[in-house]
Amino acid sequence: MSADASHPSPSARPLASRRTGALKGTVSVPGDKSISHRAFLFGGLAAGRTRVSGLLEGEDVLATGRAMRQMGARIERDGAHWIIDGVGNGALLEPEGVLDFGNAGTGSRLTMGLVGPYDFTTTFVGDASLSRRPMGRVLDPLREMGVQVLARSKDRLPLSIRGPRVAAPITYRVPMASAQVKSAVLFAGLNTPGTTTVVEPVMTRDHTEKMLAGFGARVHVETDAAGVRTIALEGQGDLQGVPDFVVPGDPSSAAFLVVAALLVEGSDVTVRNALMNPTRTGLIETLREMGASIEILNPRLSGGEDVADLRVRHSPLRGVSVPASRAPSMIDEYPVLAVAAAFADGTTRMEGLEELRVKESDRLAAVAAGLAANGVAHEEGEDWLTVTGRPDGSGLGGGRVATHLDHRIAMSFLVMGLASEKPVSVDDATMIATSFPEFEGLVSGLGGMLEPAS
Ligand SMILES: O=C(O)C1=C[C@@H](OP(=O)(O)O)[C@@H](O)[C@H](O)C1
Ligand SMILES: C=C(OP(=O)(O)O)C(=O)O
């Protein structure tokens, strides 16, 4: 039987959480997933050596590392560091086998951009979740550049792409708020003669632009009075390895610990070294509006990015309205925000959520189903969600949540069970390893109660 994203596989690992005493302690979250993928991609492409510290060793990122190895990069772990000897500009090799990206949207889409202009064939495969996700959003601009696409089912994995002899530079206006689409076009621009330009009407995470500059690409970013960004990249320049590349801690992983500390009575938790790039801090802003006590300590620069330590204390929360304009800066945090809202006084309204429908699962539907299973009053719209909370968690919990191969659904509902009256179980915790393999250990270390479920 083939794996199906809507049913857990026979190797699924159900897990439950139950109401726990105060969470206390200081923890560091692992490296940022977005930046870690890009470290393998840029490091593997550049001439010379890149030495990375703080890389996220999650399954998604390791899949990107394997793909870069298959195309000629030398990548080795050396104690706490990863050493990448890149192929040098334009010198990627045609991979022998297929590139298997598992569960990873970012890895697969950015790599499609990277190899798009190469005059060889690359085949992409992934798990049941990734095979359902739309790839047309990156394939369409690649087609404009001359790339051919062969797919059994329209613009879904498994698929193969083959570049033209010489790719054509394009100017591409990104039609949805997506850093993956922006980045795929920029990666494609690297091996394309002339200037590739991306117009981004709504700013999304800017790691690709920043890292392009850091690895020595000729890239120019302009923002007009209306906030529209234009990113122009000169193709076929020389990228150079970065001798000491530092990956800051992932704010999207920190989010689970932050919300757990806010919800569990008496908690006082410090999360060290969280990335505070403003394109990633929408959840912190929202939680503070809800009344959360989150202190931003020791703000500093690390590897060219803002980072800080977050001291989080249990706080009564109130419902707020989260504007659609904030979605790009907290896109992966809505499932855990919905859990926080389940314990807030009043109703929280979230808008502009259309992109949640095309993540590892349909996150809007998966969150709504998880809330329903655990007695949380909510309403789901096409692109919005309202959640009405119960501040003392009374009557909440007792449900089993279908995770649909989605790590963030699993972690969010495990956080819910730490504060709800009755335990919460998830049908499969295995996907947590794609982005946050340390999650269970860190939660238990802070005093959270997690246990195998049936
Ligand atoms: O560029 C990236 O690293 C990412 C972009 C976002 O996806 P979209 O571009 O689809 O919004 C985000 O959800 C994903 O986890 C990581
Ligand atoms: C959407 C996510 O990742 P990706 O698109 O890389 O699978 C995520 O990590 O929440």
UniProtKB/TrEMBL annotation:
Region (Disordered): 1-29
Residues that coordinate or bind 3-phosphoshikimate: K33, S34, R38, S178, Q180, D332, K359
Residues forming the catalytic site: D332 (proton acceptor)
Domain Enolpyruvate transferase: 20-440
UniProt record, GO biological process: amino acid biosynthetic process; aromatic amino acid family biosynthetic process; chorismate biosynthetic process
Pathway annotation: Metabolic intermediate biosynthesis; chorismate biosynthesis; chorismate from D-erythrose 4-phosphate and phosphoenolpyruvate: step 6/7
Family assignment from sequence similarity: Belongs to the EPSP synthase family.
Protein name: 3-phosphoshikimate 1-carboxyvinyltransferase
Provenance organism: Aureimonas pseudogalii
